[in-house]
Amino acid sequence: MNKVYQILFLLSIALFVSCEKDDGPKAEPLRDFSEQYATDLDSIDRFIDTHYLTVDSNFNVTMTKIPTGGTQQSIRTQTEFPLEFKMVNKHDIDYKVYYLKIREGVNERPSRVDSVLVAYRGNLVNDTQFELAQNPVWFTLDNVIQGWSEIVPLFKTGTYETSEGPNPVTFADYGVGVMFLPSGLAYYNQVTGAVPRYSPLIFTFNLYELNYRDHDNDGILSKDEVANPGDNPLDYDSDNDGIPNMYDKDDDNDSYLTRFEISENGVVIFPYPTCPSELPKHLDASCH
């Protein structure tokens, strides 16, 4: 019997050691955001300095690598569409986000929480195309990668005409842009479709149309539920209850719904009714 127990004991140890060795590949530790940003920015800078820009008469954008000995001006040095950038703070990092304003557009400008109708192309910095939407699709800017919500609102929609036939809607003078996104403002460590982990991304896009949204259905568009025009609606909480006004049905926490404080017989009053404090009624808990 002792020999039997000894054999079983040895077998259990062997099984334990075997399981320890056969637990598959371990998950890659999350990379440091600042170190990855430095790597991404270097890759983006090299792309900008080694590629040239072509824009045809229909505002279709192509970016091509400058051949050896080529005399084309790089994206950075060309002056027809000056390279611009926006600083975005996230992960305690000031991200530098380059973009090209090929055409600003002539109509309405979305906020970062509205819906937009766009056509777009996505590329990696090695010139690989990972996504293409030639037919326009709707996106809500507060439900996509942050880079989009930062850059698309710098552009405007265009105009359109409707007619019968195979192309019932024709757009004109719409915004056309290019954005160069560090991975920290994109998918970072997630594998998404054909996008590898830690990939800086390049998007060209056409901004055709938008829908302003009212997330809490209180009669005030979400883009207007801010202290100052152009502020991020996700950052404004007038009653400090932890709920941004764009989601808060009672903006001043006085137990009177905002939509009742700004309307009469179901019709929104604008400019919004004010209190003796000169604050709008829906932002002053002392009057209703």
Task: Give a nutshell description of this structure.
With 288 residues, this protein is an alpha+beta fold. The chain has helices spanning 2-21, 33-50, 146-151, 258-261; strands spanning 51-55, 61-65, 83-90, 93-103, 115-124, 129-140, 159-162, 169-172, 175-181, 201-211, 263-264, 267-268.
| Overall pLDDT confidence | 91
Beta-strand level of the residues, as a percent range? 25-35%
Number of helices: 4
Category by helix and strand content: alpha+beta
| Rounded Rg | 26 Å
Count the strands? 12
- Measured distance between first and last alpha carbons: 87 Å
Taking the sheet with the most strands, its summary is: 6 strands, antiparallel
Oligomeric state of this protein: single chain
User: Strand arrangement, largest sheet?
Assistant: 3-4-9-10-5-6
Low-confidence stretches at least 5 residues in length (pLDDT < 50)? 7-22
What is the helix/strand order?
Answer: HHEEEEEEHEEEEHEE
Helix content: 10-25%
Task: Specify the overall morphology.
Answer: globular
Helices and strands, with pairings:
Elements: H1 2-21, H2 33-50, E1 51-55, E2 61-65, E3 83-90, E4 93-103, E5 115-124, E6 129-140, H3 146-151, E7 159-162, E8 169-172, E9 175-181, E10 201-211, H4 258-261, E11 263-264, E12 267-268
Antiparallel strand pairs: 1-2, 3-4, 4-9, 5-6, 5-10, 7-8, 9-10, 11-12
Polypeptide structure, described:
- The chain has 288 residues and is α+β, with helices and mostly antiparallel strands.
- 17% of the residues lie in helices and 28% in strands.
- It has helices at 2-21, 33-50, 146-151, 258-261; strands spanning 51-55, 61-65, 83-90, 93-103, 115-124, 129-140, 159-162, 169-172, 175-181, 201-211, 263-264, 267-268.
- A six-stranded antiparallel β-sheet has the order 3-4-9-10-5-6. Strands 1-2 form a two-stranded antiparallel ribbon.
- The longest helix is centred in the N-terminal third of the chain and has 20 residues, at 2-21.
- The protein is globular and about 70 Å long.
- Residues 7-22 have low confidence and may be disordered.
